[in-house]
Write a structure and sequence with these properties.
Layout: E1 3-4, H1 10-16, H2 37-53, H3 67-76, E2 88-89, H4 110-123, H5 126-135, H6 153-174, H7 177-189, H8 207-220, H9 239-248, H10 257-273, H11 284-301, H12 315-323, H13 326-332, H14 349-357, H15 363-377, H16 400-413
Antiparallel strand pairs: 1-2
Helix pairs in contact: 2-3, 4-7, 5-6, 5-8, 6-7, 6-13, 11-12, 11-16, 12-15, 14-15, 15-16
Length: 428
Amino acid sequence: MAAVQQTFPGSELDVLFPSPTSPPTVLCPSQYPGASPKAVAALTYVLKDKYTKYHIFLNSKGFHNHITHRMLALYAMGATRRNPSVPAVEPPEVIAEENFIEHLGDENFYAAYKTFFTKVFKERRLSSTLEEYIFSKKHNFIEGQDTSAQLVMLAHFLGVLFHGFIHVGYGAEMGISGMIVEGLSMTSVHEREFLPSYLFESSGTTAVEEATTRLASLLLNTKMSIAPSQLERSPKYHAFSILAKIMQNPKFAPKEINNLMSEHGDYIWQYAEQWTIDLSQPGKIERKMEECIWTSTILYSIGGWNKDRSITADFYLQHASGHIKSLPSIYVALPDAKIAKAKVNNEFLDIVQSAITHPNDHMSKIQRAFAHFSSIYGTRLKGYFKDTGLKGTEALDGSLFLRAARLTEEYMNEGTRSFSLEAFPARD
């Protein structure tokens, strides 16, 4: 397949890649001091260059091109840096509404999907674009088709370590529509995964219709106005409670993760369905997002804890911990949301500085996430989670995020330069 450099008018690129804006909500990471005209120019140059010349994947294995994620994270932390990229390829044909579904999952059509979503985004806002192409029934379930042939755009969006979700999240967080276009195009060429097969079985009211309706209502239709310190914790249906049930179930004794998911994926989904959200309660969604942040952080940091008082910095779990910060920006997804900035604890400044210059692509992203989580949840006291049913959580407090960041720094700097691709060892 021949390499291609897509041509866009300068004015169109300026619209797609403007200077980053302030975060739309207090639950989004704040931007550190250090922004300058030179930094903005360097950032927008790389974003435009990447958009016009390069593919979203680095190789035939589907490894993602992280240059835009890293550049935006570094910009927000007060620095910039460049990464290598690979050329985009000439698509076999143009993507339009008529053939949109025919080439899903085919990376050779990345440039074509990018052109398609560029046109879509000229006519739609982010909320209606997501509702149409990610959450709608017609882009997830086609009546009469086999499960293996379903479109499942929601699964494309969340699959492959959440990269489509992350990319769109960066665009929503910093007001850069080009990132949203790239994220939706990436989603379109991802292979589908992640959601259980019974969601796509035909019935009077399909589970996917219910799930996408519920998610769309959560992500698209409600503004976020309540800061975390204003919220009272509800003990019912806490994520820790669900995690405790899983840990107590002998079916989930440590084993190869691939076998675990293939053998017990339906059980895991049933547990996930117990994690409910009551939209009639003010602040409920904000509390649930906080639960996601705490759960992903303890899985990464406490799950990776070793007897020598170090951690194994897991490659897969750091994606969950580092990138769940995209959830608030996608949730808000509205141009007129209230803007509020969070304060960052000074104890993190040396960690942030080290992450800026670290050679690993993922360090700046996960350390920025931990710094942000600490800034909004760092004042949580011991005992806050005592009624969740998960053993040991009564000892958790807001220092978890600083500890996780420090241990990650130690792991990555003491002779190890890559996150671990090995599963955590089984424990007694």
